[in-house]
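User: Can you write out an input/output pair for a complex, sequences first and structure second?

Assistant: Here is one pair. Inputs:
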Amino acid sequence: MNPPPLAIETREVAKRYFDGSTRVWAVAGVSLQIPAASFYVLLGPSGSGKTTLLGLLGGLVTPTRGDVILLGRSVVHMRDHHRARWRRRHVGFVFQDLALIPRMSLLENVLLPLAPLGGATSEDVARAEALLDRFGLGAKGGVSSERLSGGERQRGALARALILEPEILLLDEPTAHVDADNADRIVEHLGALRDEGRTVVASTHDPRLADDPRIDRVLCLEHGQRSGSDEAE
Amino acid sequence: MSGGSMDAGGWRRQRALLEYALGTFRRRGRRNLSMIVGLTFVVALYASVLLLTESLRHEWRATLDATPDLVVQRMVAGRPALIDADETFGVTDEPGVREIAPRVWGYLFVEAIGGNVTVVASQDAETRWASSLASGRNLRPAGEVPEALVGEALADRLGVRAGDRLAIPDAAGELRVLEIAGVFDHDSAMHSADVLVTTLAVARTLLAVPEAQATDIALTLARSEEAPAVARRVREALPGARVIERSALVRTYELTFDGRAGLLAVVLLPCLAAFLLLCWDRLTGLGEMERREIGILKAIGWETRDVLTARLWESATIAVGGVWIGYLLAYGYVYLLGAPGLAGALFGWSALHPTLELTPAARLEHLASLAGLVVLPFLGVSLIPAWRAATLDPDEAMR
């Protein structure tokens, strides 16, 4: 039986930042392979490089060295606008602080990725409303994003990440700012998205999430490197 | 999902980005409003100078339209003096000389209005002034009461209408009664503001110009290019005469008013520079929220060009709004209020025409000039910082 195709692969990818005159390796050479239609979690304490690694996986961060291959294509050497288009077509991203634009309604936020494509058609709006319905936000489309609760904003950001129907979904600490019930609902949604064929990668510092049986595999990070205590279901 | 032909897609993209840009007025209303106010102020200042200058050009062009190709004045002790009315300078046989006409005109101080009135003897009252009569009728050559035509602005200042009688002091200070036969509305406010047209006989009486003499001699040529040659002949025939060529007047007016307008514009440049520096300061500081917003847009799939196009629409909306409001304010300031404070710097002859009302002379070129001096630099200072943020990694822009 053939192994499932890879959605994400990194080869010794690393990212160095400068903190004043000090060099800091946020990610110090990580190689990983994530098959398509799987639900992976990057687990590590605060400062372990999870957010930077997610940024590298999504093409939001240019690596200092190494390579990132998404759906069989290296995104590292793409020109900026090609990478932006690639990201738009294939990757949805949910940020730790959700990054909804204030003083825009939730529906406007969800439709925002469509603006460079010519704006939302009536079908796009219907799809956005269906996504909001799916995540229990059907009545919140017209509400300004800063008036939503943490859980609502989290699910709203998830809807925005999915509006262009990407194959890969990356989430930074998706359960950090919600209570246990909301966290469970979010993991439920992520599991369902994996079941639909999407590749889901979420970072977390919460070991409880790593124990969730709906997750396919946990990759542990420490000091910007794989810690070697990865767990497979 | 979005599709369709390239062209239609391109328009839809622009419309979507414009809608996003207009939304920034909701999110960053205070900042954008302050930009519009600043831009409005700078544009209003600069446009006021442009409008004033243009109106002055209009005035002197209208004046020059009625100016003969050559005017000859006899000089005595360096001052213009009366000249023999039948003087022809020996150029009557020149084929290029169409007409040689003695003119009688001069100034009378009218205490009631605190200024001079220019008395002009009309030898062609039937044609020249008839076409611009706003009320009343033309002069009658020999009425019972001496008659005059006055410009609308002067009529207002004197408080007279067609049919009224006006007592005006002659050169000797003796009051003369004139009937206002009609009121004319001239293209040029300068004419309308101080000209009183009357018959040759009445003008001679008012100005104390003897029968055989005139204020100056006007020469009309078939081709204005011949003016220098004819002027040379006139100087030879009447040594010491002042021969004024229309082309010289054009140059003088241009130098005077363009020079003054240029000077004012230069004075305004620091205002413009200060405003642009302020914009630069506000925009390079790209508030944390705005920089982060650019990072978010990049992260959700916007390209650098999408971010810049949206920023361009936002800045263009501010710029166009500021330019239109500023231009309209300048229009009102110049033509409704009379440009208090600024007019004095441009009107060298304001003492003669204290109530001069400028003829509106707005031009499309003004908007082009404002676009070059204000809008383009403004777009530049707003796009550069956005470009710098948009070319960062989204992650970095969001930090």
